[in-house]
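Q: What would this chain look like folded?
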Amino acid sequence: MAMAAAVGVNGGVQKPGVSQAYLESKGVKETRVLLSDLCRQFYNLGWVSGTGGSITIKVHDDSIPKPNQLIIMSPSGVQKERMEPDDMYVLASNGSMLSIPSPKPYPYKPPKCSDCAPLFLKAYDKRDAGAVIHSHGMESCLVTMLNPLSKEFRITHMEMIKGIKGHGYYDELVVPIIENTAYENELTDSLAKAIDEYPKTTAVLVRNHGIYVWGDSWIHAKTQAECYHYLFEAAIKLYQLGLDWSTPNHGPIQNVKGLQGSKRDRNASVKAAVKDSNYEMEPLPRCIVLDIEGTTTPITFVADVLFPYARDNVGRHLSATYETAETQEDIKLLRSQVENDLAHGVDGAMPIPLDDAGKEEVIAALVANVDAMIRADRKITALKQLQGHIWRTGFENNELEGVVYDDVPEALEKWHALGIKVYIYSSGSRLAQRLIFGKTNYGDLRKYLSGFFDTTVGNKRETHSYVEISESVGVDKPSEILFVTDVVQEAVAAKGAGLQAVISIRPGNAPLLENHGFKTINSFSEI
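A: My prediction, written as structure tokens:
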């Protein structure tokens, strides 16, 4: 039953709205004791020294509905190793304080609930956590400094990964990194965003600061925190040895010379490699091959602008250019494709009459076939070539303008300045590619591009296509090429040819299956 403000458990001040019996229940008392014990343990581990860090645990009580279970939270700015059970705050699930510790005599400061409280509550709310640990352990701080531009920590093929919920030895563990702020509570929004964007994670790193870890219970949270700290320390030591912790074989970091020398030489070489690669731990590739749709350009631009424009203007374009050699070549290719489609029973294919049947009748049949091809999103040369010619008219008449993501122009300029050759590989024709990048919302970007590949080199989901590309761009090894795409099957094909591959995560892209095995980026600034 609700009570007026009164002296609470062990002399603390109780806020209205909760029964005295609940505050004095066995579950609350045991959780207070547990929290003070854990604070001492974590102090000895170096996680909460200097009054930093904090812990919170939800009281488990089968007699209380889960949404109404209380939260026990450590105070802020106190020596964690000297804390007692009655130093803890008791909060309702919505964050309102129910019991406040009594002040202690000088030189103790007045009690203050943890500055981490708003962040803890996000983990409780968004992940239904049973406990949350905030550690200032040095390894959780240093690991975010190894690559100052990275938004993620990644590691794979380490036994302790098995201690992280939903992960096995062969999985890649990905922990998001958010930027630090002057005041802890200012991290709340960025932590909540990271939780939303990484549904599999059970932790968020704060650069130059520490880590938040949550679990279904205090045991689960503690176990994972210990595993995370182990993995961070392992990454730091591998880094010092010049070894790459993010790859399965943990071999030498590529393009780092002198790794067989002294430890001092190895550290200097790694630092030089980081500096030379614009603070990226992985070496810069000699060539970068970019997909367009869902990678440089929103899928909606292609689906909602380019395709409808081509479909709506097929008849007008063919009528206006019917007698030209270019259009006659387009018609020849379409005839051949349709004949093949008819032979294989492809839906939507219909015969195209011979030229002597009359221009209008031929165009009508072509329009019907092209419409069916576009609606089926077919990646065939005959369609892509005609679409490119239609789009060219649209760009020339200022009816179309290419769209690229905001991070694309800056990245292209940076790579160009570093001598990296950048190519485009898309199912759209090379003409269409040049049109998109020749007239964008950021101007003409073709000056940063070294060439264009389309389906004439092969299907984007077949390995031989990437073999063809690697033999065309003048590299000694396919691994010197980085392919960026939003389609896992394309990345698999590129990897089969020896290329590096990463997956582009952009708004509106199709969701990825778990354990796809590739690194992901949300922006070209991460390359």
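Residues 1-11, 255-281 have pLDDT under 50 and may be disordered.
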